[in-house]
């Protein structure tokens, strides 16, 4: 017999947890299906462990720029302590805490691989092969996320490369590491492992610059910092073949130039692919292996009755944890009867890159705004234009750029680069999402001598 619920959520990562928690809080009987660990990729193999690896090196970097402190921190980091801190932050890869949260949230956790088996039906297969069929009276939510993409380069899969999972979860520091990719994962983990004592870290990027989705000045400052930290950054470079007999030992990478590199590990950071190949999309008329296209209420297009929702990476709209959680909250509310459209994932997305220096960005870049035909004006100032930056230490580089809709005189986007700028980002997010007029921002007075005084310099540069 089928188990009946009001809502069945497939995927217990951040998006799934938020959707399920929302509907359960609204009084709906909700089942949460997860095949691995509750908390998902972000909690165990991505956001949390990577930041645990990056935070001690950032503190060390800040200290080395601070007079009176740098003399006391001449020793390298203790990598074993940092790795132990990482293990603590992921709770030893144990989800008992998340399971306890689910119990208090009145969710029924169903362990196993969940697949759609027709309209409003989910079949769950446990590790021992047993099956359980769940039916949803009101809605099914797909929140199965994404996985690392490994391209079809000869020998790469056989070489058993690191993805973000091994890159955040390794038990020891590799002596020689090659990182394939130039996005956020590549930049963060290159810097993390170099800071933890890797002798050689080489980042290979096929385009001219790394972090191509950022404002160019931000990407340039991060690339400079990577080089200064000892990471070898090679752009306009691609891997054509990988050789590692038996998937163990030394890895040999052949480049498009014909040159070869040797490493102890190779980390593939070449993007993500949605996890929809084996979730039963074909049983409801959708295409496996593709993102589940949704409307702004997060309902799957092409599914009659509007009972199927998809939130997080699985719908391909915005592959960031916090935006998946945002979508999940809205999906939960919409299942409960509130018609709330998602739009911030297209116009007001914040993101922090936890390199040192950090990058915080929200909304549209100048290039994106111009591509949309918007009336754009930009202003840019250095972070050294305010006294607060000099108090952080010596030798920091950074800057801020605003993208303004000149016709409406509101912010379309903002990018910050510098120490700890991630904590400054939410003010810009509020300004972008709330479309706060620039004339109003003039009356939002930043405290002195905080680094946030840079907002005054930006408004002055604009001409207010």
From TrEMBL:
FAD/NAD(P)-binding domain location: 5-320
The protein's required cofactors: FAD
An annotated Gene Ontology molecular function: flavin adenine dinucleotide binding
Binding site for NAD(+): 181-188, 271
Chain segments annotated as transmembrane: none
Disulfide bonds: 42-47
Residues covered by the Pyridine nucleotide-disulphide oxidoreductase dimerisation domain: 349-455
Protein origin, superkingdom: Bacteria
UniProt keyword terms in alphabetical order: FAD, Flavoprotein, NAD, Nucleotide-binding
Cofactor remark from the record: Binds 1 FAD per subunit.
Annotated positions binding FAD: 51, 114, 144-146, 313
Record-linked InterPro entries: FAD/NAD-bd_sf (IPR036188), FAD/NAD-binding_dom (IPR023753), FAD/NAD-linked_Rdtase_dimer_sf (IPR016156), Pyr_nuc-diS_OxRdtase (IPR001100), Pyr_nucl-diS_OxRdtase_dimer (IPR004099)
PANTHER family documented for this protein: MERCURIC REDUCTASE
Similarity section: Belongs to the class-I pyridine nucleotide-disulfide oxidoreductase family.
Identification of the protein by name: Dihydrolipoamide dehydrogenase
Organism: Archangium gephyra
